[in-house]
């Protein structure tokens, strides 16, 4: 197992081992000499680690590097199927899961529908079942599991590895403790919106170090990158955009308070508002289609949602002033021209139009697989890429 010891020479040797393995993993092929230069390690140190990894079947020697003179060095590559990672995305209605090899190739995936209000012990049991299904379906032994990543809705304490999945019950679910007692591997627990942000957009911080991600679906969530760092807040409450006040004394939010953003722009909220106005039960995409055709009730619901969303976005932009605003959800894919409408409304509300003159992006639903993102992030954590 690629594990770092706690003290002394053993710590240094195991750390070098992880560093070498990580460097080989991040390149299609790399020579021993390149490892020495990149990592600042001596030739004997690199040779010792490489020989250990070769003996254990974690890496292999493949081909040679083209040079103009002298001997062609042997290239080192990671055996993609030496280790695997499991990723899980715990949403409001389903548990999605997958297992991937070190090359990022999917091996197996599945989903479990959540019925009613699921308690903590039931969710933990379902997570364990998901891991076992991955291992058994892929024919993989438990010892080849490098990491498990769990991304969940709700409030996540990453340090403790716990989740408050339901704000109604307030039950703290100790995910890391439970899974860690059953699987001898890295366990990473993260909020699902933050996991998607880290998995897909953290690289943007190289050119734009200030970014906000706003997620609207069955609920509303978000995350903030400021100066290249994800902002969690004192109690992991940063980015709880669902509870931005957009109308004093307005509709009741799921949290029990009134006038919060989620009670106007979430998928269930818009569908309920349309039902109250028309007496018809329709899905959000159909409501948006009717609004585009000029149907009065649908158009009124959509206008109200966009107006309230602009109020919320205006507050976010004023506080964070990001260079990039990433929007995700059915609403943004179901309404033609919604970005321009939102931008214009936000500019009307802002004290200066410049506040909305940043990069606005829509993340397409078809590209979102949070279970994949958290599986990859868990491997990076195991190899100390995330520090």
UniProtKB/TrEMBL annotation:
Claim: Membrane is one of the keywords in the record: no
An annotated Gene Ontology molecular function: DNA-binding transcription factor activity
GO BP, one annotated term: D-xylose metabolic process
One Pfam family this sequence matches: MarR_2
Superkingdom to which the source organism belongs: Bacteria
Keywords for this protein: Carbohydrate metabolism, Xylose metabolism
Residue span(s) of domain HTH marR-type: 15-59
Key word Plastid present: no
Family: Belongs to the ROK (NagC/XylR) family.
Role: Transcriptional repressor of xylose-utilizing enzymes.
Protein name: ROK family transcriptional regulator
UniProt source species: Hungatella hathewayi
